[in-house]
Amino acid sequence: MNITVAGRSHTGAVREHNQDVAVWQVREDACAALVLVADGMGGYQGGEIASRLAAEAVMESLTPRLFSGDLHEHEMTAHDNLMAAFALANQRIQDRRAEDSQLDKMGTTLVAAWLDGAKAHIAHVGDSRCYLIRQGKGTCLTRDDTVVQNMLDDGSITEADVPNVPFKNVLTRAVGAMEPLEISYARQTLEPGDSLMLCSDGLTNSVAQQEWEDILQQADSGESAVEALIETALDNLASDNVSVVLLTLN
């Protein structure tokens, strides 16, 4: 098996600052990879700091395990290591908030995927997403931690109502904004040809799923797919930062 990763983060068509972070690391044998996307909040300065702190904490915690290959000896090991990495990110942001009152509202979404062989382990907080792409179709493996998603779940609104909800981007969970931090975890076995797409809501809010599925099917490489997704978001006047990382199992 061979894992390839391509990704990019862009300020979008309106914003002047990029509060998103998209980072990844692939093991030298191309049999394991760690990818993440974080979308900061709390003003442009606070958002940039929060997403960067979260990404640094997760990579610092998990990259050594990427090269030692010990993250997923069994399911609990993968789960526990991801939980510990997210908890470290949460603590780093809370510590920084305590040092500077101007940053007291900062936090970040965070979605991370560890792929070792065909086994994927996914952790997330917030509304940045992870999709499984199989045979050209996308299946979301994460659930948005938002007020709108709660309303959809309890039947208060329908999907048709979502664009008209004024607080549709209000989060119910964010890294750095709560203690203890509630973290969602999922696992997925991939098949050759499958991809995982991690993205911030800047992509999903500006490019409809059918549109980005078509882009992925037409692209001849991960790099060209990512570039086309970003360019389409910009053509659609993305009002937020746009980040996407595409991990493919060949």
From TrEMBL:
Residues 5-249 form the PPM-type phosphatase domain. InterPro entries: PP2C (IPR015655), PPM-type-like_dom_sf (IPR036457), PPM-type_phosphatase-like_dom (IPR001932). Gene3D superfamilies: PPM-type phosphatase domain. One of its GO terms (molecular function) is protein serine/threonine phosphatase activity. Pfam families: PP2C_2 (PF13672). SUPFAM superfamilies: PP2C-like. This is Serine/threonine protein phosphatase.
